[in-house]
């Protein structure tokens, strides 16, 4: 199979790695670590490339310098500009070079694939392994999950935080998924339940990239709000860094929870204003569990009255949750209360 070749020109090794992992299943990806190397590849045509992902902000030779050289030499290769912010000035300058568009940081895998696929007339794959999880696949997932957890727990420890909420969300997810599998036509194997529950632990991993001053300030300004909200796409990018195909199921389930746990059933959430069944049922359950934990763990009684009070408080937020999934969650009341009583020290 002859893959279209995409050149990534970016001085950030991390950004190149993220983009490479997004593109590698559908394109032949080559990289340039600075503007000079990227320009040399483009001008010499060795190897020839079909499209360029070009970072705007690079030292010595930046993205616009490369575009100017391409224009002067009449090199007609489609270019998507990589930028942290598509400002009016950048958009105006880019228009003079007829670029094909912008890809914003942090990267959203689905958007990146969609833009480049459309640009090169390539039907990109968004298919993940979701069948039988063999012992080998589970071993790979567990190994990757352990590495990811080590990174995340080190971050939490270094910032005087703990993972008690992450543990609770993961454990309660397992309880609720068992009920969900019984009550719906989506019958989930126990191995898949374990993997989905493991994935829920990392729903907030993207906050590693958000300064504490913003995380801890409930009155952040509009500019800070955008930085805060970026933790959703950053988290999805982090968990999709693995290069093992057998981990793709875990990465997509986990990445979706990272990306969309702030979406609402009524479409008024962020970052994509997804609505209803546009949101994965596992991510909708994750949202319910996160919010429930926040309310339920305020007191340490852990009884039916406290459970009912938490559910009633959640129901006041009209449109936030899928009613069918919330009902399934309520069915798990005895098991959830029992869990919190057994693990009172960690929650």
What do you see in this structure?
This protein is α/β, with parallel strands linked by helices and 347 residues long. The chain has two domains: 5-120, Rossmann fold (3-Layer(aba) Sandwich), CATH 3.40.50; 135-342, Hypothetical protein af1432 (Orthogonal Bundle), CATH 1.10.3210.10. The protein is 54% helix and 7% strand. It has 16 helices and five strands. It has helices spanning 13-23, 35-44, 63-72, 88-95, 109-120, 135-158, 164-183, 190-200, 212-215, 222-229, 231-239, 248-260, 281-296, 304-315, 323-331, 333-342; strands at 5-9, 28-32, 51-55, 79-83, 101-104. Strands 2-1-3-4-5 form a five-stranded parallel β-sheet. Helix 2 runs parallel beside helix 3 (63-72) and helix 11 runs antiparallel to helix 12. The longest helix has 24 residues, at 135-158. The model has no long low-confidence stretch (mean pLDDT 88).
Helix and strand arrangement:
Layout: E1 5-9, H1 13-23, E2 28-32, H2 35-44, E3 51-55, H3 63-72, E4 79-83, H4 88-95, E5 101-104, H5 109-120, H6 135-158, H7 164-183, H8 190-200, H9 212-215, H10 222-229, H11 231-239, H12 248-260, H13 281-296, H14 304-315, H15 323-331, H16 333-342
Parallel strand pairs: 1-2, 1-3, 3-4, 4-5
Helix pairs in contact: 2-3, 7-8, 7-13, 7-15, 7-16, 8-12, 11-12, 12-13, 13-14
